[in-house]
Specification:
Strand order of the largest sheet: 1-20-19-15-14-9-8
Radius of gyration: 22 Å
Oligomer: single chain
Number of helices: 18
Distance between the termini: 16 Å
Length: about 525
């Protein structure tokens, strides 16, 4: 059942939810709660996010929405010639590491909107890093699944697998390196990470083990306040951070679905799911062709991709009776954690941070607990592509916070995890809320589909309606039914505003846990 309260925090890990609730109990606001939660998650769920990752946020301050893009850029040495020895962007190791932006997100949100002193936000995380916490079954399973692949990466074994395996379920885990790092970040308000001893440690480790990132790359990092992009759908507006993130894909798919009659198809019917899947496939084709760092999107802009006439044209390509290969259109010229927090004064925060693929690159800076992400994998080596790797450029990004508005007022902060599942999940939650009128927990619990990254078909959850599976297959969709514990369908957290407070929900697919009072 969902949680009903005047102040709420919803995350994928109960210890992190408690950290956010502690800040609210001390008189802090939703930003303070979100930040304490995010900082704690780097310690208690290190297999899904970390200090060396990126972050994004959408925030309602009581009067208007704000967007924050805290993703990092490529090192200055990442030229086309630098990657000439590769056939594709590396998935692990130093040559997948862009400048981390998460720490800058913590500082910027706290400076502009927080009320609790910055250093106090770190207290729960520091306690768990120094004194330990008991590893949950879900965290242990996800941690262990990555160990064998990452053991060869510089620094990983010493920091996160000293026995050559993940800590056991219920086993205490202590990470002194993380504690020391978080203490330095807390004391310097993040400066040490970009211009102090931590920056030197990252750059030294790169020099010693074959990385390109250096002190100047870190010192030049800057995150940006941005205006979220939006599209209307069935009386609500979905707001997303724009490119280079995939959030625009969710907006495009909803824009196409606005031209189709889902109500007539019937909820959870094969046709109902088919129309959504085909819209998502078309959106993904355009993402792959056009979306990149906005400064590199010279031929096709984000505004052109969201043009109502273009999306109506794309919707007309959807055959209700057959699945079809999705190709990019021609617009007219012109490992992740998600959390949400909301307080009784009306502030709502949609926040996401990630190391991308679990522990990210697998590279860990010695004695710091800093696992560096692998967002560089989001670039392409295709010459002339808008997302081609280049110095000081942001890669295509998968992590996206979501936010619903209605009649100019906040309706729901939400998001979910899982690579390309995120845009697809935003679409499915939007349809569940706007078309079906489901509450946040029911919308989150409903079975999901996922268009597979290799375009080989569709995966559906174990409890997907059998009639819908048969109907999708009859339309030409190769359908894979996933096992019950499959984590590839995302884990959502949601907070819906009501007249007197919030309805908060957290996903059953992980250790999701909303708290409030």
């Amino acid at each position: 059942m969902p949680l009903l309260a005047r102040n709420v925090v919803s995350t994928s890990q109960p210890l992190a939810s408690a950290a956010g609730a502690l800040m609210l109990a001390r008189g802090g606001n939703a930003v303070d709660a979100a930040l304490a939660t995010a900082i704690t998650l780097t310690v208690v769920e290190p297999c899904m996010n970390g200090i060396g990752g990126d972050a994004f946020a959408i925030l309602w301050d009581g009067q208007r929405l704000h967007g924050l893009n805290a993703s990092g850029r490529a090192p200055r040495r990442w030229t086309r010639d630098y990657f000439a020895r590769y056939d594709a962007m590396p998935y692990r190791g130093w040559d997948s590491v862009t400048v981390p932006g998460t720490v800058s997100a913590w500082r910027m949100l706290s400076d502009r909107f927080g009320t609790v002193p910055f250093a106090e936000l770190f207290e729960p995380a520091l306690r768990y890093a120094r004194e330990g916490y008991l590893v949950s079954p879900t965290v242990r399973r996800q941690w262990q699944a990555q160990v064998a692949e990452l053991l060869p990466q510089p620094g990983f074994r010493e920091a996160f697998a000293p026995r050559g395996e993940a800590p056991g379920t219920g086993e205490p885990w202590i990470c002194p390196g993380q504690a020391e790092t978080l203490q330095k970040i807390a004391a310097s308000k993040g400066e040490d990470f970009y211009r102090g001893s931590l920056a030197r440690a990252i750059a030294d480790h790169a020099r010693n083990t074959g990385g390109a990132i250096d002190e100047q790359d870190l010192a030049e990092h800057a995150s940006d306040w941005v205006e979220p992009m939006a599209i209307g759908y069935r009386g609500i507006e979905l707001h997303e951070i724009g490119p280079s993130g995939q959030g625009i894909g969710a907006l495009m798919a909803l824009g196409m679905l606005s031209n189709l009659d889902l109500a007539a198809a019937g909820a959870d019917s094969a046709l109902w799911h088919h129309l959504q899947i085909e819209a998502m496939k078309l959106a993904f084709a355009d993402l792959a062709a056009y979306v990149a760092d906005p400064q590199a999107m010279r031929e096709v802009s984000a505004q052109q991709l969201l043009d109502a006439k273009y999306l109506a044209q794309r919707a007309r390509l959807i055959d209700p009776d057959r699945a079809a290969p999705a190709r990019a259109g021609a617009p007219a010229s012109g490992g992740t954690v998600y959390l949400t927090a909301a307080d009784q004064k009306g502030m709502m925060v949609s926040f996401i941070q990630s190391n991308f693929k679990g522990f990210g690159s697998g590279v860990v800076v010695p004695h710091t607990g800093i696992a560096l992400h692998n967002r560089g994998w989001g670039f392409t080596l295709q010459a002339g592509h808008p997302n081609e790797v280049a110095p000081r450029k942001r890669p295509f990004h998968t992590i996206i916070p979501g936010f619903f508005m209605q009649d100019g007022q906040p309706l729901m902060s939400f998001g979910l995890m899982g690579g390309s599942m995120q845009a697809q999940g935003h679409v499915q939650i939007a349809v569940r809320v706007a078309d079906q009128g489901l509450n946040p927990q029911a919308a989150s619990d409903a079975p999901r589909w996922r268009v597979l990254d290799d375009n080989s078909g569709v995966a559906v959850e174990w409890n997907f309606p059998a009639e819908a599976i048969e109907g999708l297959r009859a339309r030409g969709h190769p359908v894979k039914v996933a096992p019950r514990l499959d984590t590839e369908f995302g884990c959502a957290q949601l907070a819906l505003k009501t007249q007197h407070g919030y309805v908060a929900a957290s996903d059953h697919r992980k250790d999701g846990y909303p708290v409030g009072f």
